[in-house]
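Input.
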Amino acid sequence: MDIKQIRRDNALRIIKEQRINRSEFAHRIGKTPQVVSVYLRDNPTRSIGHKVAREIEKAFGLAEGWLDKPAGGGDKITKPAPGNIAALVRYAGQCARRYSDAQADWLKARRDSLRGIEDDFSDSLEKQGLQVTDIAGTFDYTVSNSRHQTRTINLFLPFPGFDGWQPPLSDSSWPDYLVVPLLTDLRLDYAIIPAAMLRDALGDSKAPLMVDYSNLTIGHGDKTISLDDCINRFDLL
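Output.
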């Protein structure tokens, strides 16, 4: 896509996002509606040049060069000067739209990731000869082994903003095992941690337990335990 088409598309994008018509756009950039109509028609006989592009950016409080970048590459926004109230209001609106879009993308990515982890973990249990007899709520499993013993499991995947596992307030509500996925670029492992180990190491504290992927530990403060001996220990179940 050439620079002429990029500038035209971005000018149309401004009109759409600012919810203004072409006449208002023309007024804002100091051009006549007729000139703007020529700039924005499907096959323009006159294109938006360098000087006009900079004028458009200035009129709408955009960073210099914004109009020259394709959608996606031209999304960077720059905070305007404190005295430019109209530009600050537009900037706030742009930030709000980006926040909403980013939040929606994050929630979808988190949902898809958790679904993938859950499916992989269920497959891993089956491959180890463990039968899932119940799924109570989100990521709470009851499994049965070849000795017909049942175990309760909580599968926990830390995410930014959701990176601490909260121990149950009641001892009777603890799962038998806490399982934490360990992700690398090449494989997916599981730390299978007996709840008794967590209780012994952490005492009576009910503080959230944080996973440190760099050091492969779980705990809080200076009370941590290593996950090295827990990796893929399906034989514990």
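The longest strand covers residues 177-183.
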